[in-house]
């Protein structure tokens, strides 16, 4: 992954930037105005950070991305597998206009200039690009979304609405918590064993104390591949939020005292 943005560093996949028709980034912590454990580019209201700070952070992000704040359309995440088809009428929702939808963890569009935005602080941000049909998607995939296969559902929504062929698609798995840092209980591990038969050794490491290390990156990649995306078209980060909590917000590293970073994607 590469870094751009100067005083407001943004992470990008070089291969996706090289496509030429995509504007995308994963935000980091520096460059905003939020203070304390929200320092400094927190992008979510309702956590205790003043709304004016979050609004200013979005203005700075928009400037760094060379877009308008009114171009954003934001998710309203509740760990579902719901995916919203975004149209021109949605522009600004979540930033300059209120959202008139709830329980949306994935967004897709084929409208150039609309910037899809999802949020994370250890959960996995996913990007979907169809260079043939010229449409895109973004999804928030925590453990519930991952075991629920939101990646496959996003691909299905793009196929149903835009005619996307999964074999044409380019996908990315963004900065999030890695296997070494993500310990889960037996009940969570059981859900993954049921949903991913034959992949237990790849996804789970048994700690033999009723706990497991869970590899969300591998589970998302497997889901994408089983949905028809070619392995060479899936780009996976090597950046763990928990291991890099000075650069990225991490729920686990901060024991819940944190802001959120965003993943943003648009067709030029």
Tell me about this structure:
With 268 residues, the protein is an alpha+beta fold. 25% of the residues lie in helices and 25% in strands. The chain is built from 8 helices and 15 strands. The longest helix has 15 residues, at 51-65.
Global morphology: globular
Structural class: alpha+beta
Please give the oligomerization state of what you see: single chain
Query: Spans of 5+ residues with little confidence (pLDDT < 50)?
Result: none
List strands and helices in order, with pairings:
Layout (H helix, E strand, L loop, with lengths): L1 E3 L5 E3 L1 H4 L4 E6 L23 H15 L6 E3 L8 E3 L20 E4 L5 E6 L3 E7 L4 E7 L1 H5 L2 H13 L7 E4 L9 E3 H10 L4 H4 E3 L4 E4 L1 H11 L7 E3 L14 H4 L6 E7 L1
Parallel strand pairs: 4-7, 5-6, 10-14
Antiparallel strand pairs: 1-2, 2-3, 3-15, 6-9, 7-15, 8-9, 8-10, 11-13, 12-13
Keywords:
15 strands; 268 residues; 6-stranded mixed β-sheet; globular; alpha+beta
Would you kindly provide a brief summary of this structure?
The chain is 25% helix and 25% strand.
